[in-house]
């Protein structure tokens, strides 16, 4: 072999050895995008499951809780109008807000703020013709104690939808400035202070604009042209990076008609405003009445309360943050793979959903494949793409493998022993865990370990025994173990003075959930008969064999050479071999090797 050929062979071998390294499956579906835009929702507290009969004339049960708020939302405006006399009915919500909702959402990095009407700023008590600095400060503290501090909230939002007089503006300016010492950018303590309006009246805002983190602009029923116009109008007082446009869903029994979710998706205000926000680097966006996501102004929606899949909200979060369609597809497929077990989806159903995902041309269609066009048609109405992105970092291959093995076993077992029941329970526990809303890596690892232990406990051993015809043990038993459905072969033994007579049980078979036995039965071998000597037989004298002559080896240093003329038989192979070598050398030289 030439030197170049030898080197090439080494390179090929190294490349082949690297193939398994690149063939390893990816640990997780990793999205390139990240959520960095503000996304706020107005949470209508009177529609929380803990509020019953507050601010409503409809008999329908509330369905939503603050735990249902999608990931990717970083600001929640607790919008909580409570009519006079209904405070006790509202109390369960506020108790849960403090005890459960606030800690849960804070753990996710969500800021909770409280909205209140602008008119509340004007309700400051004062003794003279105009409030003093002390009176402004005392009132600001009173507002914080009333609206924010008792529940551990993170800020306030002023809802401005009126046209105050110049005198009223002076008072509201004083209260806002007093509040800004404790919340918002001037306080610099992690709290938020928002101004929320549906108009371009600068008077109540321009003198105190530096007190606010964001301006939330209600442009319900309008597209990006209004967004651009309003952002430019407020630009002298607030940079566009702090401008937060917002849209709405149809409120129940509302006479307004905004149609921000008109289909097709690319024609909707939600898509177009989200796209405008992303491309023009605005602060983000917000949605009002998000619990009404997907509802229409038609019956029965307009006069009823019913669950939502929150499809538009979840899609808008992806859109405003620039998620690609391919990423949305990957996240949807990841979700499908983990929920297919506890939803008992057939391979045909999985293929059908995957096909719908592959056909998606926008974020809305990719999400619809899992969320459905509405709550009733959803494969899983709680699917949350941003949460799914977080879950892709948790390795599930071992969980899928364990579940597939457990299903294969359960499809073949014929009994229902305690071990089979344990297998069913642990399989269901793992299915529900990875098919649920969220889970941790440690939870998955523990559930997988418990299922694998249950799988290992199902196949029972095969006991091989060795007995004589009376049932007496002739050798120690052998226990064969293996995986369910795996093959076994019972070993046979050679036992001195015994002959195999019978085999009870299957010498070859598979391990099942039922213990099996194989018994080799041996019979005592009959003794060999002694030779019979007849006295009448002639005596045969014993003939001793003569020993063979010893082989004499030549011990001299040099073997004796044949004499001239002798014909040694070993000469011909030597001659032939020499000729062959010589001929080979000639051939190689001619070829230039």
UniProtKB/TrEMBL annotation:
Keywords: Glycosidase, Hydrolase, Repeat, Signal. Residues 42-286 form the Endo-beta-N-acetylglucosaminidase EndoS/F2-like TIM-barrel domain. Its EC number is 3.2.1.96. InterPro entries: EndoS_F2-like_TIM-barrel, GH, MucBP_dom. Residues 1-31 form the signal peptide. Residues 461-522 form the MucBP domain. One of its GO terms (molecular function) is mannosyl-glycoprotein endo-beta-N-acetylglucosaminidase activity. It comes from the Bacteria. Pfam families: MucBP (PF06458), TIM-barrel_EndoS (PF23916). It catalyses: an N(4)-(oligosaccharide-(1->3)-[oligosaccharide-(1->6)]-beta-D-Man-(1->4)-beta-D-GlcNAc-(1->4)-alpha-D-GlcNAc)-L-asparaginyl-[protein] + H2O = an oligosaccharide-(1->3)-[oligosaccharide-(1->6)]-beta-D-Man-(1->4)-D-GlcNAc + N(4)-(N-acetyl-beta-D-glucosaminyl)-L-asparaginyl-[protein]. Belongs to the glycosyl hydrolase 18 family. This is mannosyl-glycoprotein endo-beta-N-acetylglucosaminidase. It comes from Listeria booriae.
């Amino acid at each position: 072999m030439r030197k170049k050929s030898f080197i090439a062979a080494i390179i090929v071998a190294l490349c082949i050895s690297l193939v398994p390294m690149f063939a390893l499956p990816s640990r997780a579906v990793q999205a390139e995008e990240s959520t960095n835009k503000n996304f706020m929702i107005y949470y209508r507290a009177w529609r929380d499951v803990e509020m019953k009969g507050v601010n409503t004339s409809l008999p329908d049960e509330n369905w939503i809780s603050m735990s249902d708020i999608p990931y990717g939302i970083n600001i929640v405006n607790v919008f909580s109008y409570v009519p006079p006399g209904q405070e006790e009915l509202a109390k369960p919500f506020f108790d849960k807000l403090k005890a459960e909702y606030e800690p849960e959402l804070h753990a996710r990095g969500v800021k909770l703020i409280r909205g209140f009407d602008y008119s509340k700023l004007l309700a400051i008590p004062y003794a003279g013709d105009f409030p003093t600095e002390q009176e402004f400060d005392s009132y600001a503290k009173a507002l914080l104690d009333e609206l924010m501090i008792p529940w551990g909230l993170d800020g306030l939002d002023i809802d401005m939808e009126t046209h105050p007089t110049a005198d009223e503006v002076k008072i509201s300016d004083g209260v806002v400035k007093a509040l800004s010492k404790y919340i918002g950018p001037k306080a610099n303590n992690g709290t938020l202070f928002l101004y929320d309006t549906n108009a371009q009246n600068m008077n109540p805002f321009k003198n105190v604009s530096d007190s606010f983190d964001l301006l939330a602009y209600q442009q319900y029923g309008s597209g990006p042209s209004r967004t651009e116009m309003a952002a430019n109008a407020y630009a002298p007082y607030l940079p566009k990076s702090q401008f937060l446009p917002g849209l709405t869903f149809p409120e129940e029994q509302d006479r307004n008609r905004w149609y921000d979710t008109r289909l097709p998706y690319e024609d909707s205000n939600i898509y177009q405003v989200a796209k405008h926000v992303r491309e023009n680097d605005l602060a983000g966006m917000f949605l009002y009445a998000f619990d009404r996501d997907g509802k229409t102004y038609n019956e029965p929606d307009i006069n009823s309360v019913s669950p939502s899949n929150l499809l538009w909200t979840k899609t808008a979060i992806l859109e405003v943050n620039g998620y690609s369609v391919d990423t949305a597809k990957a996240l949807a497929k990841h979700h499908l793979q983990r929920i297919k077990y506890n939803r008992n989806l057939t391979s045909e159903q999985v293929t059908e959903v995957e096909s719908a995902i592959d056909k998606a041309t926008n974020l809305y269609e990719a999400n619809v494949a899992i969320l459905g066009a509405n709550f009733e048609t959803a494969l899983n109405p709680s699917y949350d793409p941003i949460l799914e992105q977080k879950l892709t970092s948790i390795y599930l291959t071992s969980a899928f493998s364990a579940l597939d093995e457990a299903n294969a076993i359960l499809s073949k077992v014929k009994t229902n022993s305690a071990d089979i029941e344990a297998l069913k329970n642990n399989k269901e526990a793992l299915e529900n865990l990875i098919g649920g809303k969220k889970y941790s890596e440690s939870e998955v690892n523990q559930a997988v370990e418990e299922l694998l232990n249950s799988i290992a406990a199902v196949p029972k051993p095969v006991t091989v025994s060795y007995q004589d015809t009376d049932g007496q043990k002739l050798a120690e038993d052998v226990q064969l173990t293996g995986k369910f459905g795996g093959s076994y072969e019972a070993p046979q033994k050679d036992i001195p003075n015994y002959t195999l007579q019978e085999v009870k049980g299957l010498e070859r078979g598979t391990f099942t959930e039922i213990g099996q036995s194989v018994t080799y039965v041996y019979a005592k071998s009959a003794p060999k008969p002694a030779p019979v000597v007849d006295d009448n037989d002639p005596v045969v004298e014993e003939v001793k064999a003569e020993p063979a002559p010893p082989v004499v080896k030549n011990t001299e240093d040099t073997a004796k050479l044949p004499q001239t003329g002798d014909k040694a038989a070993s000469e011909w192979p030597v001659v032939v071999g020499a000729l062959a070598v010589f001929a080979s050398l000639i051939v190689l030289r001619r070829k230039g090797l």
